[in-house]
Amino acid sequence: MTDAVPPPPAPGVAPGAGPAELPPADSLLITDHLSKSFGGLHAVSEVTFWIPERGIVSIIGPNGAGKTTFFNMLTGLYRPTTGRIAYRGRDITALRPDRITALGVARTFQNIRLFGTMTALENVLVGEHARMKAGLIGSILRTPGVRREEKAVREKAREVLEYVGLPPRVHGMRAVNLAYGDQRRVEIARALASDPTLLLLDEPTAGMNADESARLVEFVRRLRDERGVAILLIEHDMKVVMSLSERVTVLDHGEKVAEGEPQTVAANPRVVEAYLGKRGGAA
Asked: The domain at 1-104+196-283 falls in which architecture?
């Protein structure tokens, strides 16, 4: 398998989803007819998809549409049954999650997965591990270079926590004792600590009130504008999706049924049908 991956053919979109678009050759990430089956269950079926450099893209769909399975394939937690994933022109389909992280892809989870007994700062330090240079021997011997690197990563962890809106008084608190919204921010900070060029956010506003969601929308825009990070979201809050996304992809029963600008997608009959559950999908 070679690293270089040519652009895939025009994506297969379910009937009624509108004309197919060809992914731009310079896209940050491209999936080529990506599928994942669990026995007889087709969780994701033939999805071709792309994310532009510095883009903000959302994936929406009813419960059970295959959104998180799709995320899990992009980040190496699941290996696709068929199809390919290319990141910056390199085939990453079969790479381990740590290798994909090292290339610049980071994520959060629908259900927060912090280390509860560790502090906010310690959780972010875990995210920086992918970028540390010290090996096992250096860490044991505590060489001057290792001590300098450890000091630098701690300073960076504090900076990232403040960047996501968490003041110094929170840094030493155990994650389990933080408010829900602050736990979400720590998880985002941990993902940012690996210096990603693509950040995947799985339902980042889940459990947030309207004010918290609005602040997250502004933060995501600032993250893209200031740090050049491309963002891919799974999100159920349509107000967030419509106000933030430049492109929206809709999955239903594992298939891509619509894709395009938010207003166009929202008016698509297939999207309305999927959310109303007329074909048996969960609302």
From this structure: 3-Layer(aba) Sandwich (3.40)
